[in-house]
Design goal:
Layout (H helix, E strand, L loop, with lengths): L2 H9 L3 H35 L5 E5 L3 H10 L8 E2 H8 L4 E13 L2 E6 L2 H4 L5 E4 L7 E4 L1 H7 L6 E6 L8 E12 L9 E5 H15 L13 E2 L1 E6 L4 H12 L2 E4 L1 H44 L1 H9 L4 H42 L9 H27 L3 H5 L4
Parallel strand pairs: 4-9, 6-8
Antiparallel strand pairs: 1-11, 1-12, 2-10, 3-4, 3-7, 3-11, 5-8, 6-9, 7-8
Helix pairs in contact: 1-11, 2-9, 2-11, 2-12, 3-9, 9-12, 11-12
Length: 403
């Protein structure tokens, strides 16, 4: 007696119940695996983008906005701060490294950041092609920028004012590509890096065109930067330096790790909600599988009793139900993993298109294994409940059609 072939036939006996069981189970698996992967990918990518940055100093405003704009480069800045005042902070003995950045322009949606050579060291990046910028109007490209835009050493382009790709006017001064960074899987990959002087010179020329009526003896505008990225020498500085800046200056100090933890708390509510919805669908799918198997046992009671009379024992009949349930669960599991990866892929593509941020599409086997064990446990429980009528089967009564 080939129990496996009989299970395959039973698998097609009630196609509607089988389809509903597989569909609901695969959806719950897709939600569980997908939301876990997205949550861990987002958290990992955000933490990875911090590099060696312990504090961000910028204009007064929202500290979270300051972090999102200056560290993750996915928001608008809170304003500018005087570079001379920022230089005073850079001399603080508790500060190991302070990197000024200034931005406000883009090229095809990729932000152009004016900074110093120390900026790349925050992300442990190195130049794989070309060299670092040595004079104004020279730029070094992040790996993703060079790949997506097809730019090479020696190419020139004109930047656009503002942080969005469309709707801004183009600056006249051409920028020349002199280097390309290695791939870091950090925010640097989607940035165009140049010197501070480039940003100041481009915008100074723009102001000169707008203010041709300016009197000859009037002083030039004070040099400004968007923010200052700071690394501390020791943890004690975290307790004293930010408070001193916020209380004694016109600038604002924000701690990226603290602000991102607040952000996780907000997004965590949505993650938990979707997870509980997935658990609810998982329970419903297991109930559907139980009903499918139970109806199969009840509807084919005569055939099963006949098999018993020809020598099949309860264990063989139970294996038949077990095989059918495991087949449904296995099919649903593979479909669920496939659906989750398709969904995550499209979400990552949307993020890459909107924020120019690429994230590696990785499937953590630990999370998949945990989800698989949970699903298998629920399905085995459903199978055990469906097998119960086989244990109590009265062969003589069923074969004689007695009620």
């Amino acid at each position: 007696m080939n129990i496996w072939k009989i299970s395959l036939r039973n698998f097609r006996f009630k196609p509607l119940y089988t389809f509903l069981g597989i569909l609901t189970l695969s959806v719950s698996i897709a939600l569980l695996v997908g939301i876990q992967q997205l949550d861990k990918s987002f958290r990992g990518q955000l933490d990875n983008n911090l590099g060696e940055i312990d504090m961000v100093v910028g204009a007064k405003g929202s500290p979270l906005q300051l972090v999102l704009a200056s560290v993750l480069h996915i928001d608008n800045p809170t304003g500018n701060i005087p570079f001379e005042e920022a230089k005073g902070l850079m001399k603080n003995p508790m500060i190991q490294k302070a990197v000024p950045i200034s931005y406000g322009d883009n090229f095809k949606g990729y932000r152009i950041v004016g900074t110093t050579d120390d900026f790349a060291t925050l992300y442990s990046a190195s130049i794989t092609h070309g060299r670092s910028m040595e004079k104004p109007m020279e730029v070094v490209l992040g790996a993703s920028v060079a790949e997506k835009l097809g730019l090479r050493i020696g190419d020139t382009f004109q930047s656009s004012h503002g942080l969005i790709e469309k709707g801004a006017h183009t600056h006249e001064e051409p920028l020349t590509v002199v280097g390309i960074y290695n791939t870091t899987h950090k925010v640097l990959d989607r940035l165009i890096v140049t010197g501070l002087e480039t940003i100041w010179e481009v915008h100074h020329h723009e102001e000169e065109h707008k203010e041709e009526h300016q009197e000859e003896g009037e002083e030039e505008h004070e040099q400004e930067i968007t923010s200052l990225l700071v690394s501390f020498r020791n943890p004690i500085a975290l307790l004293t330096v930010p408070r001193s800046i916020n209380e004694n200056t016109n600038m604002q100090a924000a701690l990226p790790k603290f602000e991102l933890e607040r952000l996780y708390q907000f997004t965590g509510v949505g993650v938990k909600t979707i997870t509980w919805i997935a658990y609810a669908i998982l329970v419903i799918s297991c109930i559907t599988i139980f009903i499918s198997l139970y109806r199969m046992v009840r509807d084919r009671a005569f055939d099963l009793a006949l098999m018993r009379s020809y020598g099949a024992n309860r264990f063989q009949l139970a294996k038949m139900v077990l095989y059918e349930g495991v087949l449904m669960a296995g099919t649903a599991f593979l479909m669920g993993i496939l659906l989750s990866q398709i969904g995550v892929f499209f979400i990552f593509e949307m993020i890459a298109d909107q924020y120019k941020q690429t994230m590696p599409l990785q499937l953590k086997y630990q999370e998949v294994l945990q989800t698989g064990v949970l699903v298998l446990s629920m399905v085995l429980l459903s199978i055990a409940l469906a097998i119960y009528p086989l244990i109590k089967m009265n062969i003589s009564k069923i074969l004689s059609h007695e009620k």
